[in-house]
UniProtKB/TrEMBL annotation:
<keyword id="KW-0812">Transmembrane</keyword>
<dbReference type="InterPro" id="IPR006143">
    <property type="entry name" value="RND_pump_MFP"/>
</dbReference>
<keyword id="KW-1133">Transmembrane helix</keyword>
<feature type="coiled-coil region">
    <location>
        <begin position="195"/>
        <end position="229"/>
    </location>
</feature>
<keyword id="KW-0175">Coiled coil</keyword>
<feature type="domain" description="YknX-like C-terminal permuted SH3-like">
    <location>
        <begin position="476"/>
        <end position="543"/>
    </location>
</feature>
<feature type="region of interest" description="Disordered">
    <location>
        <begin position="257"/>
        <end position="276"/>
    </location>
</feature>
<dbReference type="GO" id="GO:1990281">
    <property type="term" value="C:efflux pump complex"/>
</dbReference>
<feature type="compositionally biased region" description="Basic and acidic residues">
    <location>
        <begin position="263"/>
        <end position="276"/>
    </location>
</feature>
<feature type="transmembrane region" description="Helical">
    <location>
        <begin position="68"/>
        <end position="87"/>
    </location>
</feature>
<dbReference type="InterPro" id="IPR058637">
    <property type="entry name" value="YknX-like_C"/>
</dbReference>
<comment type="similarity">
    <text>Belongs to the membrane fusion protein (MFP) (TC 8.A.1) family.</text>
</comment>
<dbReference type="Pfam" id="PF25989">
    <property type="entry name" value="YknX_C"/>
</dbReference>
<dbReference type="GO" id="GO:0015562">
    <property type="term" value="F:efflux transmembrane transporter activity"/>
</dbReference>
<feature type="region of interest" description="Disordered">
    <location>
        <begin position="1"/>
        <end position="21"/>
    </location>
</feature>
<keyword id="KW-0472">Membrane</keyword>
<protein>
    <submittedName>
        <fullName>RND family efflux transporter, MFP subunit</fullName>
    </submittedName>
</protein>
Length: 546
């Protein structure tokens, strides 16, 4: 529209100049007529000179022909009109239209199609070895979370469970047969000790017991020596009270005779009456002897040493048994490992068999994409059964060209249409590796997550996506046609003081119709919005925004 207006203005300007030139031509002609007093034709028609008689003799007089004079005058008139037209055009002001620079909003929405796919697929493998009893699904079926996909023969599952339990019992029996209850206690007593550590401790215990026994022996000998000294003193005193002829009774250390005579029995023969002092001494020695004998039996230090020896011997016994058990440590460790391994694997089998009795159920709302088994077949553990795609986690995969790639970022919102139904989405992944499409063009895979999926979604179909890419609010926005481009870059023409002025600009976000100017213009600048193809910087213009 701006171009049409500009053309109209140019035509009007040309028409004004032409009319003015015609008028001036007419005025000039009138002046000529007024000066000669007749028309131009009349002037030239009467201009013919006769030949004088004296020149008849051979000389010929030239005469100015009418047609040449008229042609010359017409040429002068035309040149004058053109000159005046040039002077009038040079002083003419060009009319332009402008648009004030204002702040606005701009958003770049990219429309790119992609393929609907599930972000999660799961393949179910058989956890047990058993026949398939029921299988009521096929490829393409939509199932809900908790729906039964297939079931096993329960009788076969029960038999397999009993077999597993028997295997655990057998392994446990084999392990327990290697050890008695006492031997198990001894091994626990030495738990964490190596054979060398056990040997070192046994040697230390033996040394401690020997040391304690030496202490007990030394102290017992000292006490016994004291008792013996007391007895010898008693012999000496009694011997002094007996008649010499009866001293032979003391040979060999017998003191029975002394005891009988001291009791006052005189029937055994003559004896000397002991003195009072000897009698008192004998009584004191007897008391001392009894005290020392008692001390020998009840000495606290000797008792403590004996208690220590008893504890050491108990430890010695346990360690010796543990040492004996470690002689066959390899077999013991192997048997224990076999038992524990059997228990783990068979218990896992039992747990899986118990779970299989309830049938295999879907873990999420989804669609069946593959069925690899048939009803009635006996499957082995680990056999592939069914594959499902999750309809609760749906995404759209699209290929982005290098020109659109800078405009896309993770987190941008997307309007998605699948089979005519609208969904919300968000850019969640931009690949770090480009690939080439079928046309050999480099593209980057981008993933959009569908944030509100439902069971109406069909996987594998095409989805249209409107990505809300770059966006800026409260910024300078111009129609794209206002912006020109040359070797120096982007620029616009503005009117400043009635003159065309070029302003270089930096373009930010751009759409098919608008562009953001992030540098080079200020709010309020008057940007020329009409055709600028005939304008040059510095040209005088007048604004006509009617």
């Amino acid at each position: 529209m701006s171009e049409n207006k500009n053309d109209k203005n140019l035509e009007e300007n040309k028409e004004v100049v032409t009319n003015e030139a015609v008028k001036e031509d007419a005025a000039e002609t009138a002046v000529i007529k007024e000066t000669t007093g007749s028309t131009a034709a009349e002037v030239y028609d009467d201009y013919e000179e006769a030949t004088p008689p004296e020149e008849v003799t051979g000389k010929k007089k030239f005469k100015l022909k009418k047609r040449y004079v008229v042609g010359g005058v017409a040429a002068v008139l035309i040149l004058g009109a053109i000159g005046r037209q040039f002077l009038v055009g040079k002083n003419q002001v060009t009319m332009v239209e402008t648009s004030p620079v204002v702040l606005g909003n701009i958003e770049n929405v990219l429309s790119i199609s992609g393929t609907v796919q599930s972000a999660e697929t799961k393949t179910y493998f058989s956890e047990v070895a058993a026949p398939i009893e029921t299988l009521d699904i096929k490829v393409g079926d939509k199932v809900s979370s908790g729906d039964v996909l297939y079931t096993y023969d329960t009788e076969a599952l029960d038999l397999a469970e009993k077999t597993a339990q028997l295997a655990i019992t057998q392994a446990k029996g084999n392990y327990n047969s290697l050890y008695s209850a006492v031997g198990a206690a001894d091994r626990k007593y030495a738990e964490g000790m190596t054979a060398q550590q056990i040997n070192d401790r046994l040697d230390a215990i033996t040394a401690e017991i020997n040391s304690l026994n030496d202490k007990i022996t030394e102290k017992t000998n000292r006490i016994n020596q004291t008792l013996k000294d007391i007895q010898n003193t008693q012999y000496d005193i009694n011997q002094n009270s007996i008649d010499d002829k009866y001293e032979s009774y003391f040979d060999g250390g017998s003191d029975s005779y002394i005891t009988r005579n001291e009791s006052g029995n005189k029937t055994d023969g003559e004896y000397k009456e002991p003195s009072e002092s000897d009698r008192q001494m004998i009584l004191a020695l007897e008391q001392t002897y009894n005290d020392v004998s008692y001390a020998l039996k009840t000495d606290a230090e000797i008792k403590s040493w004996n208690d220590q020896i008893t504890a050491l011997k108990e430890e010695q016994s346990h360690l010796s048994s543990a040492k004996a058990a470690q002689v066959n440590g390899g077999t013991a460790a192997s048997s224990k490992a076999s038992y524990e391994s059997t228990q783990l694997t068979q218990q896992d089998t039992i747990d899986k068999l118990e779970a299989a009795k309830e049938g295999v159920k879907a873990d999420f709302n989804g669609v069946v994409t593959e069925v690899a088994v048939v009803e009635g077949a006996t499957v082995t553990a680990g056999a592939k059964m069914v594959t499902m795609a999750n309809l609760e986690d749906v995404q759209v995969a699209l290929s982005v060209s290098k020109s659109d790639l800078p405009k896309i970022a993770v987190g941008q919102k997307v309007d998605i249409t699948i089979n005519g139904k609208a969904y919300d989405g968000e850019v969640i992944k931009i690949s770090g590796n480009a690939t080439k499409n079928s046309n050999g063009v480099a593209v980057v895979e981008t993933i959009i997550k569908v944030t509100n999926p439902d069971n109406d979604i069909i996987l594998g179909v095409e989805a249209t996506n409107k990505i809300h890419a770059e966006k800026a609010d409260n910024t300078i926005v111009l129609p794209y046609e206002y912006i020109q481009t040359d070797a120096e870059g982007d620029y616009v023409y503005v009117v400043e003081n009635g003159v065309v002025t070029r302003k270089n600009v930096t373009v930010g976000i751009s759409t098919s119709t608008e562009a953001q100017v992030i540098e080079g213009l200020s709010e309020g600048d008057e940007v020329i919005s009409s055709d600028v193809s005939m304008l040059t910087e510095g040209m005088a213009v007048a604004v006509n925004n009617m």
